[in-house]
Hints:
- The complex is a heterodimer of chains A (285) and B (333).
- With 285 residues, chain A is mainly alpha-helical.
- Chain A has 2 domains: 4-44; 51-282, MetI-like (MetI-like fold, Orthogonal Bundle).
- In chain A, 76% of the residues lie in helices and 0% in strands.
- Chain B is mostly helical and 333 residues long.
- Chain B has helices at residues 26-67, 72-77, 91-122, 126-137, 141-166, 185-209, 213-221, 226-237, 239-254, 258-263, 281-288, 298-327; strands at 6-10, 16-20, 81-82, 87-88.
- In chain B, the strands form 2 sheets. A two-stranded antiparallel ribbon of chain B has the order 1-2. Chain B has a two-stranded antiparallel sheet with strand order 3-4.
- In chain B, β1 and β2 form a beta hairpin.
- In chain B, α6 (185-209) runs antiparallel to α9 and α9 packs antiparallel against α12.
- At the A-B interface, α1, α3, α4, α5 and α6 of A face α1, α3, α4, α5 and α6 of B.
Amino acid sequence: MMNRRQRRHLEERFFKGVMRLSLFLALGVLGLIIVTVTQKGIGSLSWSMLTKSSEGGFYLGKEGGILNAIVGSLYLAAGATALALVLGLPVVFYLHAYIGKSSLANAVRLAFDVLWGIPSIVYGAFGFILMLMIGMRASLLGGIITLALVELPILVRTMDEVMRMIPHELTESTYALGTTRLELAGILLRQTLPGLVTAVLLAFGRGIGDAAAVLFTAGYTDNMPDSLMRPVASLPLAIFFQLSTPFPEVQARAYASALVLTILILVISLLARLSLRALGRHVIR
Amino acid sequence: MNIVQPRILTDRIGTARTTFVIPRNRQGWRYWKDAIASQGMGISTFAACLLIVVIAGALLDRAWPILSVESPKALVTSETWHPIKGQFGFWPFIASSLYVTLIAMALAVPAALFSAMYLAEYTRLRGLIKPLVDLLASIPSVVYGLWGVLFVVPLVRDHIGPASNDTLGQIIPFFATNNPTGYGLLAAGFVLAIMVFPFVMSVTEEVFHSVPQEMREASLALGATHWETTKAVVLRKSLPGVIAAVVLGFSRAFGETLAVLMVVGNVVQVPGSLFDAAYPLPALIANNYGEMMSIPLYDSALMTAALMLLIVVLTFNIGARLVLVRLNPETAA
């Protein structure tokens, strides 16, 4: 018969074990994804896949590559991030330089949190409706606009969190020097530049990986992107379409494309995290 | 407020020129700029916040043709889906979405909770593991889907399905399988669980972390063990936040499209077993946008599906965020 002390000790050991196990399992499975994708992808990854565009019959197993999808994704995400930045920076400045710590600011934050939670397929449907209204076909521009809406809350909330880290004294001394709120915004921007780079890179990564939003709005094509008004290919959709074909050799290309996408995303996320440290040298703390 | 007006300037040499210049008193111009910027930024901020209403309005407008002929209750509860005959019953899709998401949450939440506890209370490796999990969370959904096809579907088909069928399946029909493909609820739920795990863990970990250290110390001083402190103090104190995190995770999983679409089988039916193929709402939209303009009312039906998604997600999100903000106004996630 166990006494009370032993029982409590056992309980402690048991739950600690459960915690370790669940963390280990979850990390293991997440790691397994990377291992599986690398293992499957490395075999069919070839130089011509990265340097050639998918000409006719690529999805039937003929020669070609996914360069058009890679470039298309980069165009889409770069355009969307730029647009989201133009729309988002004024919001962040307004939050920090103008309405400060008011309940209005918290309401705006809540709104952006909620916007962040809206699934990208809903943004896709909304973008599609917008394009129908102005009579636009699936195109690079349509994809950029829709993706920008997806990225906007990510960008705003991440930049907002970075700006919150600024010590209050800095704001006060800036005001004490007689600046206007707009000039304060400039100071805040300087001060948070590394964090902003992080936010931009995170949004950019999200833009590259998102498929549901561009499904309706950017269309798909075998050609290199050449005009804002034409459809454009994207890497996630390329993977999806390659995998949906019944041909094993095309499916193998999907694995290789997934490896390319994963590496791209991981590099961007890593850069985003490293930039915080690397660019943070000139920040007053 | 000073107004910018043309005036004659004489420079040192003495030649006069007319030009628009900033008023002698620079102060005025600076305040003027500030006022313009204030208005402009204010307008863009509230325009962006209005986006929620605009999206809902646009979807409602597009969904109206079908909502005006059929009562919402009939649309939600009807099981017959024959777009060509003009019959749009959403129940199979809603049921599929609910099942897939609930399975995912059942798998992900316990693991996420225990992991978050371990990171927040037990280990100093927090600074190492959290960035790692965040990094893994940035993997795009199509890659999760691909991994599901490569790994989870065969696993369900060859091992979990038969094993469950021969044991529990003999007693409870929900665990029996007559779907030999492996594509179905369980595969989708599993993939989805992996996808929401980092998110739920991150948010709960933040909530645990924000519990004041003094409370833990008080409990430890009374002789409680580490686990008893975690259970009775940290967990109890952060329970609302944990619930909010789970609700946020649910709404995130509810709208996940591509990864689920790739492994769920896409058969229009109300799934009766853990292994049946299903057809969640996002998959319905993504799979059929191509032909939606060619069948009458079909586009309206798909937009109704998008509207349903939006309503669920909005309700859950606003509720959960309000709880999180109330809990900790400073560091609300």
